[in-house]
Amino acid sequence: MSLVPGFDELIHAPTRLSIVALLAASQWAEFTFVRDSLQMSDSALSKQISTLEEAGYVTVRKTGAGRNRRTHLQLSSRGRRAFSRHAAALQQIIADAAAHAR
Amino acid sequence: MDIGDAREGLEDIRVRQAQAVREAASWRWPWWYVAGTAVLMLAVSVALDFNHDAALFTVVYCCGVALLQVPLAASMRVRLHRSHRTLRVNWPLGALVIVVAAVYVAARVALAAAGAPLPSTIAGALMAGAYVAGLPAAQEITARRLRAGH
């Protein structure tokens, strides 16, 4: 069942799915908002963001300096497409299972 | 990957997206933006009583508002994707702009017809007052529509 087209193993990891879902609803979100929403530590979130960034799914933009330093996270168009396909794949899995049960 | 896992994934997506919408809906225009816009409205209205170059003051007003927008993003923690920023959600803010402009035009025409001194200044004060008074209501309706998923 894991071979449903569009299913993305990289996105589906529990924390990463939450991060990508938050970012999918947003044009951009601040790092601290994502961290607080998911109740993660800075380092744990940074690690997941790096993985998503390496895959080309997330872009990171830092602005300001000192106390005003802010980090904005944004889902890239590639990441947005992968997320849409992944969500569709999850729906497909449920639909297939329901059809199979009938 | 089983059906339970897929259901959990979709539920997580729903919950997280609702979280982003809730955060955006709780955001309010900062006081300095509201005050700055009201002061600009009043300043341009006062200037129009002494110089009739409306085009010049329209440009000054637009530039002032654009400048105020620059630090606005710093007061937000999340900016919703454009799919959430539709006219169906934001119409109260659009309506406020129309009402505020109508207040100025109606007041200025009425004051000029009555021969009142400084008609633009008084109309501008009424316009700025309408903006400051109407903004919280417009924001609240917009936030409610966002949370309701319009």
Describe this entry's structure for a reader:
The complex is a heterodimer of chains A (102) and B (150). Chain A has 102 residues and is of the alpha+beta class. Chain A has a single domain (9-101), classed as Orthogonal Bundle (Arc Repressor Mutant, subunit A). Helices cover 60% and strands 17% of the residues of chain A. Chain A contains five helices and three strands. Chain A has helices at 9-12, 14-24, 31-38, 42-54, 77-101, and strands at 26-30, 58-63, 70-75. Chain A has a three-stranded antiparallel sheet with strand order 1-3-2. In chain A, strand 2 (58-63) and strand 3 (70-75) form a beta hairpin. The radius of gyration of chain A is 16 Å and the shape is elongated. The two termini of chain A are 18 Å apart. In chain A, 32% of the residues are buried. The mean pLDDT of chain A is 91. Chain B has 150 residues and is mainly α. Chain B has one domain (28-75, 86-147). Helices cover 77% and strands 2% of the residues of chain B. Chain B has five helices and one strand; from the N terminus they run H-H-H-E-H-H. Chain B has helices at residues 3-26, 31-50, 54-69, 87-113, 119-147; one strand spanning 78-80. The longest helix of chain B has 29 residues, at 119-147. Chain B is elongated. The mean pLDDT of chain B is 91. The chains are: A alpha+beta (102), B mainly alpha (150). At the A-B interface, helix 2, strand 1, helix 3 and helix 5 of A face helix 1 and strand 1 of B. Strand 1 (26-30) of chain A pairs antiparallel with strand 1 (78-80) of chain B, so a sheet runs across the interface.
